[in-house]
Amino acid sequence: MTPAVRTRVAIVGAGPAGLLLSHLLDAAGIPSIVIDQRSRDEIESTIRAGILEQGTVELLDTLGDASRVRTVGHRHDGIELRFAGEGHRIDFPSLVGRSVWLYPQHEVLKDLIAARLAAGQDLRFGVTAENVVDAETDRPRVIARDAEGQPFEIEAEFVVGSDGSRSVARAAVTGSSTGGYFDVRPLETYPERALRRIWKAQHFSWWMTSLLHVAPDATDFDRRRQLGELRGVVESRHGQAYLAEAYCGWPLTGG
Ligand SMILES: Cc1cc2nc3c(=O)[nH]c(=O)nc-3n(C[C@H](O)[C@H](O)[C@H](O)COP(=O)(O)OP(=O)(O)OC[C@H]3O[C@@H](n4cnc5c(N)ncnc54)[C@H](O)[C@@H]3O)c2cc1C
């Protein structure tokens, strides 16, 4: 018989989402097990994101001294858009009273991993989730292999798939490994609130990309229209404020 461990929340993936969730659950007195297929060293040395929104920094503050973002990270109070030979500063604090922080994702992960282990978190590296079964029931299970390749299962009340873009858990929840976005049970209103923010951020990312890059097949008309759009933003306090608000991040709650 396959050995099994029990917990209330099984979290697949020790990225920022999974680790921060285990921290928040612990603060609420809810135990969890976090597994990740990669080694601790690999997780802590993979270079990815570099900029943190203000809301994320405030969330990391709940780690106390374990978070080094305020001491080692750098607060950025604005950006400069340069086009047609001129620079235009977008000053975040004066526009929206917020900022962003330059603090690499792998440093955030170092902080989170150290804090979770210090708190006695059951955090397992080199452990791969192969499937999530019984997702429709109140006893979902993660079918996994440990660091030695031995099969085992995690029985939980909830399974959280924070296993990134090639998620194994996603297929079990949405029925597809590529389609479907979100399903949270039994928190009926949460998906709608979260999705609203996610799609706003998705649009902002697309908009900034189209605003700041010239497509290889851009026509003269396209370039002039793009310059018109840039001027529309920097010459309007409202345009600047939208950019600043989105760049620094909308509130994580509400909406
Ligand atoms: C080059 C680059 C630059 C970026 N820059 C920025 C930026 O400046 N600002 C920003 O906000 N975002 C940025 N991002 C995006 C950001 O890195 C991601 O949004 C973030 O990593 C997502 O976190 P996550 O915890 O959801 O997933 P991930 O960080 O992908 O973590 C998922 C974890 O799950 C584990 N896993 C996967 N499958 C399994 C399995 N079957 N079993 C067990 N474990 C599994 C993986 O090993 C991984 O550790 C960037 C991304 C990249 C690639």
Overview of the molecule:
This protein has 255 residues and is α/β, with parallel strands linked by helices. It has a single domain, classed as FAD/NAD(P)-binding domain. The protein is 41% helix and 22% strand. α1 runs parallel beside α6. The longest helix is centred in the C-terminal third of the chain and has 23 residues, at 190-212. The model has no long low-confidence stretch (mean pLDDT 93). It binds flavin-adenine dinucleotide (FAD). Flavin-adenine dinucleotide (FAD) is lined by residues 12-18, 35-38, 43, 48-51, 105, 128-129, 162-164, 168.
Percent of residues in helices comes to 40-55%
Please tell me the CATH architecture by its name: 3-Layer(bba) Sandwich
CATH class: Alpha Beta
**Which regions contain 5 or more consecutive residues with pLDDT less than 50?**
none
Spatial order of the strands forming the largest sheet: 1-12-11-10
- Beta-strand residue fraction: 15-25%
CATH superfamily: FAD/NAD(P)-binding domain
| Helix and strand element order | EEHEHEHHEEEHEHEEEEEHHHH
Tally of strands: 13
What is the number of domains?
A: 1
Enumerate the distinct ligands. flavin-adenine dinucleotide
Tell me about the largest β-sheet: 4 strands, mixed
